Amino acid sequence: MLTDRQMLILQVIVDSYIQSAEPVGSRSISKNEDINYSAATIRNDMADLEELGYLEKPHTSSGRIPSEKGYRHYVDHLLLPHHLSEEELQNMKALFTKNIVEVEQIIKESATILSDLTSYASIVLGPEIFESKLKQVQIIPLSEQVAVAILVTNTGHVENHTVTMPSTLNSSDVEKIVNILNERLVGVPLYQLEEAIQKEVAGVLRQHIKSYKDALIFAEETLQKTKQEKVFYGGKSNLLIQPEFHDINKVKELLEVFEEDETIFDLLKPEQDGLSIRIGQENGNEAFEDCTVISATYSYKGKPVGTIGIVGPTRMEYPRVIGIVDHLSKGISQALTNLYR
Amino acid sequence: MLTDRQMLILQVIVDSYIQSAEPVGSRSISKNEDINYSAATIRNDMADLEELGYLEKPHTSSGRIPSEKGYRHYVDHLLLPHHLSEEELQNMKALFTKNIVEVEQIIKESATILSDLTSYASIVLGPEIFESKLKQVQIIPLSEQVAVAILVTNTGHVENHTVTMPSTLNSSDVEKIVNILNERLVGVPLYQLEEAIQKEVAGVLRQHIKSYKDALIFAEETLQKTKQEKVFYGGKSNLLIQPEFHDINKVKELLEVFEEDETIFDLLKPEQDGLSIRIGQENGNEAFEDCTVISATYSYKGKPVGTIGIVGPTRMEYPRVIGIVDHLSKGISQALTNLYR
DNA sequence: GTTAGCACTCTGCAATTTCGAGTGCTAAAT
DNA sequence: ATTTAGCACTCGAAATTGCAGAGTGCTAAC
C-alpha cells in the first residue's frame, strides 16, 4: 500500500509532531539526516499520504499533522522498541523492593509512579474482586440494630459495610447465621456469592432459624459487595501542560469525566489481556476524542485482575509510554504473585 | 473608622464584583437604588477606601475591585444573612432522609452535594478517627506469614491492613495475643492505643507468650492505624469555569495541590469549631492566594470530628456559600448523632 | 459636604498590515 | 519515470493602528 519512503516520511512526521506539537513541513523533513530527498519530493508523498488519510492539514497552507489513522499506522507498523532509561527502570523497581504487604498500596503507588514517569495522567483500576474468593465473614454489632459486616478475601482484600439487623433476629441467631455462612461459603468466588447463598445456605437457614425469611435477607445484605472497583489517579494536572489542552473547555470536559468512576472504568476495561492502545475516537467517548489511552492488564496467578493506564493527547510519546506501561504491568503481576505464594 | 456611606459603598462593590467579576465604577454604583449619591461623591469615598486598603484598581483608569482586606471587612461586618432556597434545602435534606447506615457514604455524598449546590470545588475530611474507640480487633491469616488485621471502631469505621507474622509465633500464640488485645483495649480511643499497649498489654504478653518481644512488635503492628484521614472531593472542575482561573498555570498549581492530601488536610484543619473563612493569603499557601476557603466542622456527640469545606475564588458568593456550608455541617452532625444513638 | 463638568487615562476590540512558513504546480534535470 | 528546482499563491500569527467606552481625579460651583 504505502511505499517505503512514504512510511519513512510518516514516521518522521509523527516523531517530530510528538516532540514539538507543531505541524511538520516538507522542508524540515528534508533536513532530517535519515532522509535524502528534496522537499519537493517529500511534498508529493505528503500529498499522497494526506489523500490516503494518514495526514491532515490544520489549514490550507501549513505543515501536516498525523491523523488518527496516521497514529494508528505508526503504532501498528512503525513503532521502534524503546529502551527504558536507567532512571525509569530504577523508579519502577523501587516500587517493588519496598517492603510491600498491602496490595492496595502497590496499586496506589503505581498510579503515582506512572504519572511521574510519563508526565501524563494515570489511572489504575484496583484488582478486581471477581477473581478473589471469600475467606471469612464477620459481623460486629455496633448497636441494637446496626452492625458492621466484614468480608475478607484470599487476596487480603477487606470489604466492609454496615448492615441493619432485623429485630426478629436475636444475637444468637446472628451468630448462627454467620457460622453457617462461614461454613458453607468460604472459598466461593465473590461474584458467585449471590447464587451460592440460594443454593448452599437458604436450605440450612430454614432448618436452623425461626424467622427464616429475615435471616435470608440479612445474609444477602451481609454478603453484598459494596464497591466493585477502586480507581486511583495520578497526575491529572499533567494534562494541563499539554498544548492541546490549553482550551479550558476541553480540559473541563475531561476533568468532569475523570470524576465519574463508571465512565473511567468503561474506558479502561480491558478488551483483551496485555497492552491496549486506543487512539482518539477509538475511546468511544467524546471528551476523549483528542486523547490516547494506553493501558495494560496485570494479573494474579495468570489471570488478569486489574488495569493500569495512561491518558494523554493523541500526540503521545508512544514508544516510551508503551515501554513503561508494559514493564510496570508485568512488574505488578509478578509482585502480586510473589506476595501470596 | 469607616463612615456609614463608605461601608455601604464597599458592600455594593463587593456584591457587584462577586456577581459580575468586573471592576466596579462609580457611575454604576450611583445607579444602585439603595444609593442616592452622585457618582462624584462615590468617587471620593472610593478614593478613601482605596487609600485605606479596602479596594484596589487593576489599572489606573478602571473601576475598583475589593482587596483581601475589603473582603475580610465585608465578611466580618457587612454580610447579610442569606436565606437558602427551597431547592437548596431540599437537596441537603435528601442526603439525610436516605436510608443511611454508612458514615463514609454520607461524607462522600456531602462532597458531591456541596459542589453541586455551590458550583465551587468541595473538600470533605472524613470523621477523624481520633474520637472513635476500638470496638474489636481481628486477625485473619492469609498465608503462613501474612495476615489481615482488622480494627473496628464504635462508629462503624473499619480499618484494615496486612501484617506479617513473625515465624516465632505459632497460630495459638496469635490467637492468644488477639484475645489479650480485645480484653484489654476495647473502648480505648484509637489515638491512645500506642500508649495503652505499653501500659495494659505489654505486661500480660510477657506472662503468656514465650517470644515476648516479637509478640509486642506484632501487637503494635496490628494496631497501627493506617490512614489517618480520608479526603473526598467534589466538583474540582467547577474551578475552571471561574474567570479568575482562566490562566492555565494558576489552575495547574491549584490542581496539583489538590493531589496532595496532606496539604489539603492542613488547609482545612479547623482552628476552632464552627465556621471558618480564609481569604487569599490567609490560607498560607501560595497556590491559594486567589482563593477563599470556607469550612465548617461537623461533630459527633458534641465533639468536632471532621470538616467540610468549599474552595472558590476570593470573589465568592459568600452569603450563599456560608449558608450552605453551615447548614450542611449541622445536618451531618445531627445525622451522625442519630445514627449511633 | 455634595455635585457637575471636563480633561485625561487606559483597556479592549476590530481593522489592517506585514511576515514567513508552507503548499501545489509546472517545467527542467536525472 | 522519478526527482528536483523554482515560483506564485495561501493562510495564520503577530504587530500596528485607531477608536470607543468606561472610569478617574480635580476644580469650581452649589
UniProtKB/TrEMBL annotation, chains A, B:
InterPro entries registered for this protein in UniProt: GAF-like_dom_sf, HrcA, HrcA_C, WH-like_DNA-bd_sf, WH_DNA-bd_sf, WHTH_HrcA_DNA-bd, WHTH_transcript_rep_HrcA_IDD
Domain annotation Winged helix-turn-helix transcription repressor HrcA DNA-binding: ranges: 1-72
Key words, A-Z: Repressor, Stress response, Transcription, Transcription regulation
Domain (Heat-inducible transcription repressor HrcA C-terminal) ranges: 104-322
Regions annotated as coiled coil: none
Known function: Negative regulator of class I heat shock genes (grpE-dnaK-dnaJ and groELS operons). Prevents heat-shock induction of these operons.
Protein family according to the UniProt entry: Belongs to the HrcA family.
NCBIfam families, alphabetized: hrcA
Protein name: Heat-inducible transcription repressor HrcA
Originating species: Aliibacillus thermotolerans
